Amino acid sequence: MLTNDMISKDVKLSPQQISASIDFPVRSLNLSFSDEIPEFWFANNAFLTSFLAALSSAFPDGERQFIHSVRNYQSQIDDPVLLKQVRAFIGQEAHHGKEHDQLNDLMRKRGYPIDRIYKRFKKMNKMMQQTFSPAHQLASTVCMEHLTAIMADYFISKNTQDLDKFNIGLRKIWAWHAIEETEHKAVAFDVYQSLVNRPYFLRLVMLETTLFFVFITSRGTLELLKHSGQRKNLKNWSEGLRFLFGRNGLVRQISQDYFDFFALGFHPWQHDNRVTAEQLKRKYQII
Ligand SMILES: [Fe+2]
Ligand SMILES: [Fe+2]
């Protein structure tokens, strides 16, 4: 395990050197979620729980597509370090899908329309695989990995205390997912840089991916919120919108990191959050 001292000695490393130094394992958590977990398991708020559950419902099939897009290039990777990271990336994403399936089951048991979201993602993956070139699919993964990494960093570095808004039975899955999204945040990017390297195309795909992400997440959130029976609860909405768009909210906190992606020299490890990620690993005993 890295110590803060070991990391601070690396201060002069470039983002690319940090990326090459990252060695991360595939962890299997085998979590299960008790029926005692309250229905509104984030901040006791139906809107925000629906938002996070919409993300969770998208993960299993979304992550299968990430794996598919990187596998398309796996045989062309010569660098043994990157190849090892690609294998670990595939292992981590496969486990995320498996663990989130358990959480999604909990929502399904409570009647939430999880299967509708699953089916939509299956259809979308099929469409992407049939109509997008391998380079376009990989670029979409790079962009989604950036979005997940900066959202993960919200809980790792920006507003760490917000992890405590999850019900205690669900904190570990979200902390673990956030940590692993950080560990492998540059893998798809490094594959793209070494084998596709079309920087302007990548930035265009980021715009496409962002629009698509906002649309699909909003749609999922509204569908789940409708089932909760809290769609007309204004207090819920105002708390939720404040969490997302308020002065200290998620969107404002991650916006600079989001826009950094559009600079041509960008690399995910220029946002070096190794120290805070290590602190969270220790807190949740994620080894
Ligand atoms: Fe993931
Ligand atoms: Fe990921």
3D structure, described in words:
The relative contact order is 0.18. By secondary structure, the protein is an all-alpha fold. It has helices at 4-8, 15-21, 46-74, 80-109, 114-131, 134-158, 171-183, 187-195, 199-228, 234-245, 250-260, 274-283. The protein is built from twelve helices and no strands. The termini are close together. Helix 3 packs antiparallel against helix 4, helix 6 (134-158) packs across helix 7 (171-183) and helix 7 (171-183) runs antiparallel to helix 12 (274-283). Helix content is 69%, strand content 0%. The structure holds fe (ii) ion (2 copies). Residues 93, 145, 148, 181, 184 line the site of one fe (ii) ion.
Briefly summarize what is shown:
By secondary structure, the chain is mostly helical.
Largest sheet: none
Number of helices: 12
Instruction: Compute the number of strand runs.
Output: 0
Q: How much helix, percentage-wise, in residues?
A: 55-70%
Query: Approximately what portion of the residues adopt beta-strand conformation?
Result: under 5%
Cα Rg:
18 Å
Bound molecule kinds, no repeats = fe (ii) ion
Give the termini distance in whole angstroms: 8 Å
Structural class: mainly alpha
The rough form would be described as: globular
Mean of the pLDDT scores?
95
User: Unreliable segments (pLDDT under 50, ≥5 consecutive)?
Assistant: none
Please provide the ordered H/E string of secondary-structure elements: HHHHHHHHHHHH
